[in-house]
Amino acid sequence: MFELLGIPPQALFGQVLLGLINGSFYAMLSLGLAVIFGLLNIINFTHGAQYMMGAFVAWMALNYLGLNYWAALVVSPLVVGATGIVIERFLLKRIAHLDHLYGLLLTFGLALIIQGLFRNSYGSSGLPYQIPPQLAGGHNLGFMFLPNYRGWVVIASLVVCLATWFMIEKTKLGAYLRAATENPTLTQAFGINVPLLVTLTYGFGVALAALAGVLAAPIYSVNPNMGSDLIIVVFAVVVIGGMGSILGSIITGFSLGLVEGLTKVFYPEASATVIFIIMVLVLLVKPAGLFGRTA
């Protein structure tokens, strides 16, 4: 069938795999944004810089401390998540009573500062980060060659996304988080420390971005611009799925990654804009997003 269209099957399945990989990062990053916005009403423009920080912390842990990839998967989200907690406690908390535009401008400024600091320290050229030996090589599936690491990224991101959705939607902790968002005064009256929940939630969303950065480090070069190149697309994914929708971010992230990959096969000229075209069409039909709730 694909030969009739002049498309080699290997090229098609290769782009499907690339779409799944890009979709994995779209889903994880948009999930972190959805957690922060849905529970805290903060539009976190620092998210791309925090994704970049995750990759850089993994690179520095390897080159300065000798920590391997598997240790970086734990250490990097904790370190970057801790910086997120500091940002929330000392900056975002001070403007929580103001209009949401102030939070957007603050996080946008922080993103520029963080990227500038890393650019001045490490330059703009990419720094290599090796694939862990356990995930080197790949498997010949007959119709395509599947690199082990890329398969791991898709599976790991899917597991993390579904675990996050389950925690927020199906556990008592998630119920506390949703209650603290909808009625913080009443929730605090029941003895729940709402300010601590808010801080930890922001730190968790930032940690998700850092984890995505560690997963991305062996695939893409570690450089200060890697977050800024991705964050605009991720915001489009969040808008399409519905601002604050956890499940919407996961489904939309993976789906749009596939759409983007297939567009590169059938109409390459539109591959860079197809997500934004879809965003415009969705907003025309359903302004709240595919999975968003209307006010």
In brief, what are we looking at here?
With 295 residues, the chain is mainly α.
Brief descriptors of the model:
single chain; 295 residues; mainly alpha; two-stranded antiparallel ribbon
- The proportion of residues in beta strands is under 5%
Structural class: mainly alpha
What's the count of strands?
2
SS summary, helix count:
11
Q: Low-confidence parts, pLDDT < 50 over ≥5 residues?
A: none
Output the radius of gyration.
Answer: 20 Å
Explain the overall architecture.
Helix 1 (9-40) runs antiparallel to helix 10 (246-266). The model has no long low-confidence stretch (mean pLDDT 87). The protein has helices spanning 9-40, 47-65, 69-90, 100-122, 148-170, 172-182, 184-189, 194-216, 228-241, 246-266, 274-285; strands spanning 138-140, 145-147. It has 295 residues and is mostly helical.
How are the SSEs ordered, and which strands pair?
Layout: H1 9-40, H2 47-65, H3 69-90, H4 100-122, E1 138-140, E2 145-147, H5 148-170, H6 172-182, H7 184-189, H8 194-216, H9 228-241, H10 246-266, H11 274-285
Antiparallel strand pairs: 1-2
Helix pairs in contact: 1-5, 1-8, 1-9, 1-10, 2-3, 2-4, 2-8, 3-8, 5-6, 9-10, 9-11
